[in-house]
Amino acid sequence: MLEAMDNVNEFTHGMTYEELIGNKITCHAVVHNIQIIGEAAYKLTKEFCALHPEVEWRDIIGLRHVLVHDYYRIDFSELWTIIHEELPPLREQIEDCLRGMED
Predict the structure, then answer these.
(1) Cα dist. 94→20, 49, 98 in Å?
(2) How far apart are CA 61 and CA 27, in angstroms?
(3) Catalytic residue from among 32, 52, 58, 64
């Protein structure tokens, strides 16, 4: 998940929204990596997710389902918001989960 988040950040770094939607390759790369984040969340055990209720697992998995199965409904302005407002705190939450596993 962290690698996919890093990929999204790297691919979109310094881009405007207009540049993103104007670049099909970057759009596809971003969508693919957000799918990976959702797929990884989907593969987590229910027990692990229950231990970390601060993470919006259902929303993450739900977005993955839209990106994979209902791709015609992709709202790139919503993805832009997710990239800039939701991925940074999600990354921190995932890092906290991993630190908790080390303890």
Answers:
(1) 26, 11, 6
(2) 19
(3) 64
- Which of 13, 69, 73, 99 is an active site residue? 69
Q: The whole model's pTM is what?
A: 0.91
Q: What distance in Å separates the CA atoms of residue 103 and residue 98, rounded to the nearest whole number?
A: 9
Helix (H, G, I), strand (E, B) or coil at 56: coil
13 noted as active-site residue: no
- Give Cβ neighbours of residue 96 (< 8 Å, ≥ 6 apart): none
What proportions of the chain, in percent to the nearest 5, are helix, strand and coil? 85, 0, 15
pLDDT tens digit sequence for 45-94: 999 999 999 999 999 999 999 999 988 888 999 999 999 999 999 999 99
Is 64 an active-site residue?
yes
Measure the CA dihedral 78/81/83/87, to 10°: -110
